[in-house]
Amino acid sequence: MTQTFFSRLQPGMRLELGSYTFEAEAIKTFARQFDPQPFHLDETAAEQSHFGRLCASGWHCCAVFMKLYVRNGETALREAMGWTGAMPDRGPSPGFRDLKWLRPTYAGDTLAYRSTLLAARASQSRPGWGLMQSEIEATNQNDESVMRFVSTVFISTR
Amino acid sequence: MTQTFFSRLQPGMRLELGSYTFEAEAIKTFARQFDPQPFHLDETAAEQSHFGRLCASGWHCCAVFMKLYVRNGETALREAMGWTGAMPDRGPSPGFRDLKWLRPTYAGDTLAYRSTLLAARASQSRPGWGLMQSEIEATNQNDESVMRFVSTVFISTR
Question: Which residues form the MaoC-like domain (chains A, B) (predicted)?
Fold first, then answer.
């Protein structure tokens, strides 16, 4: 009997999505476009702020999650499941829950991102589709948790 | 008797944060950096996807909220409250709840962002500080809701 990809999803499965070092220039470039607050734009201004040092926009930390997820998510999922078949269709993400920025990400910090599967269940509203719910976490080089949220994506159950 | 800024916050208060048109080039530039999926990168590939047309990364829609909030939030808040005094200190955002991407944002769409104050309460853990909880919503040029989330920020009660 052939098992579907969906039926093989195991809550607790953990995927390492890779890491990214937030260099000062990248922090400032993102901030100039999307979050031009002094502590994301300029070292001296950051020293005078409650952060004390140049640090990345929380949205920059989110965007880097997406970058790593797109680049490494499928490979990590295949490896964790020992899956070599075709990947099931995936739908759009309806959103996320409970995003927490727990600590600043300072210039030079390296964040490692991982995803832990919380649940996989059939969708009530879309036959043939299931919902994968995962906790996403980023930790810095001191193994401190800096960001956490719960992500949901649609995935084919076929 | 002088009222503090914090004590004058009224749930239901609505702030218009401005609008932004998602041009195809900006959608692709964001996607190349942070969300390189075919339907965010290329018109032809997008036509063959479940979206049907080039559309913006959900994280791009979030980042543009931040851009408009930084640019226009303070002015909108002053106007809504009739406040001409000094602005209270604001702390970092501890995070967001319940982000929903309700509809795609297609190339050429213009999103208008607004914030509605849900609650303002004193912080239990940080004396002298309060928490402002707001619903953020973006609607497109057809007045359809495309994104919604609940934001929380620390603000001085003094």
Answer: 17-75
Separation CA A152–CA A157 (nearest Å): 15
ipTM of the complex, rounded to two decimals: 0.92
pLDDT tens track, chain B, 158 positions:
568 899 999 999 999 999 999 999 999 999 999 999 999 999 999 999 989 999 999 999 999 999 999 999 999 999 999 999 999 888 888 899 999 999 999 999 999 999 999 999 999 888 999 999 999 999 999 999 999 999 999 999 98
Pick the residue of B51, B60, B66 with the most A CBs within 10 A to test the interface with A by mutation: B66
CA A107, A113, A118, A120 torsion-angle sign? positive
Question: What whole-number distance in Å separates Cα of residue B144 and Cα of residue A147?
Answer: 31
User: In chain B, what residues touch A64 (CB-CB under 8 Å)?
Assistant: 34
- Residue of B33, B129, B131 to mutate when probing chain A, most A C-beta within 10 A: B33
Helices (H), chain A: 24-34, 38-41, 43-47, 58-81
* Closest-approach residue (CA) in chain B for A65: B34
CA distance A24 to chain B (A): 16
In the CATH hierarchy, which fold is given to the domain comprising B6-22+64-156? Thiol Ester Dehydrase; Chain A (3.10.129)
Distance from CA of A12 to the nearest CA of B (A): 22
- B87 contacts chain A (CB < 8 A): no
d(CA B15, CA B77): 7
Residue A14 corresponds to which amino acid? R
Distances (CA, A) of A72 to B115, B128, B135, B147: 35, 44, 33, 26
pTM of the model: 0.94
Kindly state whether A63 is in contact with chain B, defined as any CB-CB distance less than 8 angstroms. Answer: yes
